[in-house]
Specification:
single chain; 174 residues; mainly alpha; Butyryl-CoA Dehydrogenase, subunit A, domain 3; 2 domains; 6 helices; 0% strand; Pectinesterase inhibitor domain-containing protein; Invertase/methylesterase_inhib; signal
């Protein structure tokens, strides 16, 4: 069941990676350099069986976590801008968004360091996990008014993706 969920997340991420550059090009952004593995994504989307090395799987998990974190951050920004968050809870949601922004930086650092400096990658993953956890705590402190269900669901997924990548990184150091 978990493998199926992971595959569905991979497919949705791949669809985003394949389709988003096309949407960006339509909006006039012509000099975008796509550094992601679009061929791999196309294979996954088309249902081809893809055997990945653990490092590749971990980097994809980091990619997915980064993508989800940026989308959650955008969602929270939208909620704040459209006044869908009650006044008393805005501070808690802002703290959560701030932690997500910092978690994205840590996830990007872990991705960059994954192959060349595994220890730094592990440290960055731990920092990202802490920051996502701080977001969870911030929303809990805000009470019912700060509860944003999609954010809670995303937090769980992002934390599990970070743990999966961290597990692979720890195996790489041994």
């Amino acid at each position: 069941m978990a493998r199926l969920a992971c595959c569905l997340v991979l497919i949705s991420l791949c669809l985003c990676l394949v389709l988003e550059p096309a949407f960006a090009a339509k909006k006039g952004h012509k000099n975008l350099k796509d550094t992601r593995k679009s061929k791999l994504c196309r294979k996954i989307v088309q249902g081809e069986r893809v055997a990945l090395e653990p490092v590749a799987e971990a980097k994809i998990a980091i990619d997915i976590a980064t993508s989800m974190a940026s989308r959650v951050g955008a969602y929270m920004s939208h909620q704040l801008k459209t006044n869908r968050v009650k006044v008393l809870s805005k501070g808690f949601v802002k703290v959560c968004k701030f932690n997500y922004d910092n978690a994205i930086v840590d996830l990007n650092l872990s991705y960059i360091n994954f192959e060349s400096n595994t220890k730094k990658a592990i440290e960055s993953l731990k920092q990202a996990e802490i920051k996502v956890g701080l977001c969870v705590n911030s929303l809990k402190l805000g009470g019912k008014n700060a509860q944003v269900p999609p954010v809670h669901e995303a937090n769980k997924v992002i934390q599990s993706l970070i743990k999966a990548a961290e597990s692979v990184a720890k195996k790489q150091t041994h």
